[in-house]
Design goal:
Elements (H helix, E strand, L loop, with lengths): L12 E7 L3 H12 L4 E5 L14 E2 H6 L7 E4 L1 E5 L5 E4 L6 E4 L1 H14 L3 E4 L6 E3 L4 E3 L5 E7 L6 H5 L8 E9 L8 E5 L10 E5 L4 E8 L6 H12 L6 E10 L8 E2 L2 E3 L15 H21 L4 H8 L4 H12 L2 H6 L5 H13 L7
Parallel strand pairs: 1-2, 1-11, 2-8, 5-13, 11-18
Antiparallel strand pairs: 3-7, 4-7, 5-6, 9-10, 10-11, 12-15, 12-16, 13-14, 14-15, 17-18
Helix pairs in contact: 1-3, 1-6, 6-7
The chain binds flavin-adenine dinucleotide (FAD).
Length: 365
């Protein structure tokens, strides 16, 4: 903190270093800088917005946490859910919405706002490990020192590995193709229950900002058949003849918050810590929310001798027992077939699906 006045010089010592300029790392860094800490964010990508791996849909609560310019988003009010034989039901919920995003543009925006808050953000910097003495941590390769290290480096965190912290073991893998948009794409988020092509999760179509995003996720060890999925939904969405503009994909940790996500002066946030809804597989809202909460806790810990930030985050993190139970059921019970054969009435289905998508189970996603 004392060194803030000399921030324009290349410095070698920070209150906090964050590894990963994703949603969690930037939310954490921005808040910590606003609290007066000297903050450095490092990311191995060469620039913000490169190699996007997420669909990038913001739930309403995430949008309210950190808004972005209108040109970067497209509002979606309705979810249309399809059974395997493509019977569908529409869901809407009083004033609730999702935001499809120009995700690369959004990441550039978040980096700009994080820098404006006073944090330094450097790209092309890979984390290679760190050593600790009694008062500081020293990053291998650069010699940069810090008082606290945050691992916001995604589902397969190098920070976690280097400090012997927990690993995400239950993972879905997601794959997405971006198609040329079409005027007839409408404004619904389409979700397809397709246990054959997307075992363990769903397929989706998002009328996005500059593209129509078509993707699916499946258990990590299962075969996710995106080609077969695209063909199967063509009669509904009309994809043939449209160019594929890009591809994204990555791993989604759905095992819940890791038991072992912190130690002295080191804390994991976001996907690195398993902060993802086990059922919807959404992680951006949690990344924002717990990234900020962690920053406040770290500032209190470093500046005012507060409790360890790990205990603060653990206490605040929702238990999500119902969602874990729902994920267990989805993994093991023939949910899609039950829907198809009408074991669930349309009304019950609507209510259950409404709880999943609009998250009225406990008000948190
Ligand atoms: C296909 C797919 C679709 C998804 N769709 C949605 C969705 O629509 N809505 C939603 O809410 N969630 C979605 N998720 C989940 C969501 O993307 C994640 O929960 C969210 O990105 C987590 O943010 P994060 O900052 O923790 O991690 P990440 O976004 O993974 O960011 C980690 C950062 O760390 C950097 N990094 C990694 N290793 C190093 C290293 N050694 N050195 C330096 N930097 C490093 C990476 O370059 C990256 O920038 C989806 C995930 C996938 C895979």
């Amino acid at each position: 903190m004392k060194e803030r006045a000399t921030a324009t010089r290349v410095r070698a010592s920070y209150d906090m270093v964050v590894v990963g300029a994703g949603f969690a790392g930037l939310a954490c860094a921005r808040r910590a800088a606003a609290r007066g800490l000297s903050v450095l964010v490092l990311d191995r990508k060469s620039e913000p917005g490169e190699r996007i791996h997420t669909t990038g849909i913001l739930v309403k609560e995430a949008w309210e946490e950190w808004a972005a310019p209108a040109r970067l988003v497209r509002r979606i009010h309705r979810v249309r859910i399809y059974t395997p034989s493509h019977k569908s039901v529409d869901l809407e919920h009083d004033g609730y919405f999702f935001m499809a995003t120009d995700t690369a543009g959004l990441m550039r925006h978040l980096v700009r706002e994080t820098r404006q808050a006073g944090a330094e953000v450097r790209f092309g910097q890979r984390y290679r490990g760190a050593s600790a003495n009694s008062r500081t941590l020293k990053l291998e390769g650069s010699g940069i020192r810090c008082r606290f290290l945050v691992g916001a480096d995604g589902a397969q965190s190098g920070v976690a590995a280097s400090f012997g912290l927990g690993r995400n073991l239950r993972l879905l893998k997601g794959t997405e193709w971006e198609f040329e948009p079409s005027g007839g794409d409408g404004d619904s988020l389409h979700c397809f229950l397709d246990p054959e092509r997307a075992p363990g999760y769903i397929g989706w179509v998002v009328p996005g900002v500059r593209a129509t995003q078509v993707g699916l996720a499946a258990h990590r060890d299962a075969r996710a058949d995106i080609r077969g999925f695209v063909t199967s939904i063509d009669p509904i969405i009309g994809l043939s003849g449209r160019r594929v503009l890009g591809r994204r994909g990555g791993l989604i940790p759905v095992g819940g918050l890791l038991r072992n996500f912190y130690r002295e002066r080191v804390l994991l946030v976001g996907d690195a810590a398993g902060m993802v809804s086990p059922l919807t597989a959404g992680g951006i809202h949690k990344a924002y929310r717990f990234g900020k909460l962690a920053a406040d806790a770290i500032a209190d810990y470093l500046e005012h001798g507060g409790p360890h930030p790990g205990t603060v985050v653990r206490r605040a993190y929702p238990r999500l027992a119902l969602k874990h139970l729902a994920r267990w059921s989805y993994d093991r019970l023939p949910v899609a077939r039950a829907l198809e054969t009408g074991i669930f009435t349309r009304n019950l289905f609507r209510r259950l699906a409404g709880k999943v998508f609009f998250d009225r189970l406990n008000g948190k996603l």
